[in-house]
Design brief:
Layout (H helix, E strand, L loop, with lengths): L1 H17 L6 E6 L2 E7 L4 H13 L7 E5 L3 E4 L21 E2 L13 E4 L9 E2 L3 E4 L6 H11 L7 H9 L12 E7 L2 H6 L17 E4 L2 H12 L6
Antiparallel strand pairs: 1-2, 1-10, 2-9, 3-4, 4-8, 5-7, 6-8, 6-9
Length: about 230
Amino acid sequence: MKNLFFILLMFFTVSTFAAKPKETYIKIETNYGTLYIKLYNETPKHHDNFIKLARAGTLDSTLFHRVIQEFMIQGGDPTSKTAKKGDQLGGGDIGYTIPAEFTPNLFHKRGVLSAARDNNPQKASSGSQFYIVQGKKYTDAELDGIEKNRLEGRKFTTEQREVYKNVGGAAFLDGSYTVFGEVVKGMQMVDNICTVKVDRNDRPLTDIKMSVSIVEKKELKQLLKDLKAGKAKS
C-alpha cells in the first residue's frame, strides 16, 4: 500500500512539473486599432510585471510617446498621462527596474514586445516603459555588419537571419533590450501609428492614448479560436 501511494505521489509530482505553463494574452487598445500580445513564459520577471501593470490599470491613459517609422512605437511613461502638448517624454518611471532576461531564441523580429530602459550597465528594464517593433527588412550584408559591431561576438542563427530578411525587425537591439512578448493579432495598429506626424523628439503631434488589459474568458476563447484558424496578425 505504501509503495502504491509513493508511485501515485511521484506520478502527480512529475505531471505537475511537466505541465505546460499557461500562456497570458494582453490587449492594447488605441484610437488607431486594437492588438493582442502573447507574453513569453521564458521571461518570467517581465511577464509577471506586465500582468501586474495591466491588472492595476497602471498603463491606462499613458501615451505612445515615441514613434519612429520602420523601427518601433514606445509607451508606458507614467508622466505622459498628464503631459502638455510638446513636453518631452520618456524619462518617467514607477520606482523600480526589472533585471534583464536575455534568451537566445527571443529576438527583435517584427511585432515583438520589448522593455525600454536607460543606459544602466546591467541593462535592467524600466518597470513600465515598453516598445513594439515595426522594424525593417535587412540584407545579409547589413546583418553581417550588426554582428561585427553590435553583438559582442554572437552570431544570428539561420532562422533569425531568414526572419530579419523576409519579415523584418530591429536586429541591432538583440542582446541589449529584453524581448518578452509578441503581437499575435492586430499588427495593423502598429503600422497605423507609425504613419502619424511627430515632433523633433518623435512624439506624435496628436496624443495616442492606450488602454491595456488582460484578455479573459470569452474573449480569450475567441482569440485562441482565431489563432488556431490561422488568421493573420494584421
